[in-house]
Amino acid sequence: MSDYNHHDGGSSCFRCCFSFTLTLGLTSLFMWLSLRTSNPILSIQDIYIPALNKTLNSTDYQKIYIDLKFDNTNKDKGIYYHPINITLHYYINGSTSISSSKIPISNYTIRGFYQGHNKKARRKDWVDTYGVPWEAAVDGGGLAVFRVDLTTVIRFKILAWKTKKHRLVVGTDFEVDGVGKKERKKGTRLRSGAPELGSGQFPVGLGLVVFSGLLLVFN
Ligand SMILES: *[C@@H]1O[C@H](CO)[C@@H](O)[C@H](O)[C@H]1NC(C)=O
Ligand SMILES: *[C@@H]1O[C@H](CO)[C@@H](O)[C@H](O)[C@H]1NC(C)=O
Ligand SMILES: *[C@@H]1O[C@H](CO)[C@@H](O)[C@H](O)[C@H]1NC(C)=O
Ligand SMILES: *[C@@H]1O[C@H](CO)[C@@H](O)[C@H](O)[C@H]1NC(C)=O
Ligand SMILES: *[C@@H]1O[C@H](CO)[C@@H](O)[C@H](O)[C@H]1NC(C)=O
């Protein structure tokens, strides 16, 4: 036993070390691949604002119909949504360039829910508004411009356990025409203003393990 080790110690140690780091590296890579998560894709599918429907000729009914789609594109990870806060703004004079011309007109909350992998969900609501200058919006001459912002916290479900919390903050402008419908007929995606952190990134800890493994192998 000790004899064998005495003669061949260095080389067997090297081989052992090599396969150990290789296994560690491959395991890390595999773990990273299977732990990688993508944020859900959110979009407005439909909008109807009866007060802006010129044919109705009335701004008495002041609710907004909004149809949101939640698309979990992860192949094998579920998503837990905390309560979802939504705010709507109206751009005075239809201008999106001046931030001060944006006024809050509505806010509401969608109850949190769980969404399985590869699943889509719709949330359709009639929401109350306040402070919209309806006459100006109807007679504005062009399209009325609004903004929707959505804030929530999500956690991913991987096999039997939950990841840590991720803040999800997305939004988009949308335009409404003379019959009160969203100008773009296709879905309008809500996007994040800031670069998305903590999602799909190579974990620093695993990176260090792989890096030091490589150093050992090539030394
Ligand atoms: C606008 O109002 C008219 C009159 O009530 C109605 O026929 C029409 O369907 C409305 N437009 C939309 C997009 O609902
Ligand atoms: C719209 O309603 C106002 C009063 O509510 C009326 O004076 C006007 O004629 C109506 N316009 C049309 C096109 O029906
Ligand atoms: C914007 O609209 C307000 C009233 O809503 C008006 O007083 C102002 O002149 C408008 N500004 C521009 C640049 O059109
Ligand atoms: C939410 O809406 C209510 C009125 O419905 C308003 O008083 C409140 O200030 C709004 N909150 C935010 C954060 O906009
Ligand atoms: C949603 O709004 C509630 C009440 O204003 C607040 O307590 C909560 O932190 C908000 N959620 C997020 C994700 O900002």
TrEMBL record:
InterPro entries in the cross-refs: NDR1-like
GO biological process, one term: defense response to other organism
Predominant place of localization: membrane
Transmembrane segments: 12-35
GO cellular component entries: plasma membrane; plasmodesma
Compartments where located: Membrane
Tree of life domain: Eukaryota
Keywords: Membrane, Transmembrane, Transmembrane helix
Record flagged with keyword Transmembrane: yes
Annotated protein name in UniProt: Uncharacterized protein
Source species: Helianthus annuus (Common sunflower)
Lineage: Eukaryota, Viridiplantae, Streptophyta, Embryophyta, Tracheophyta
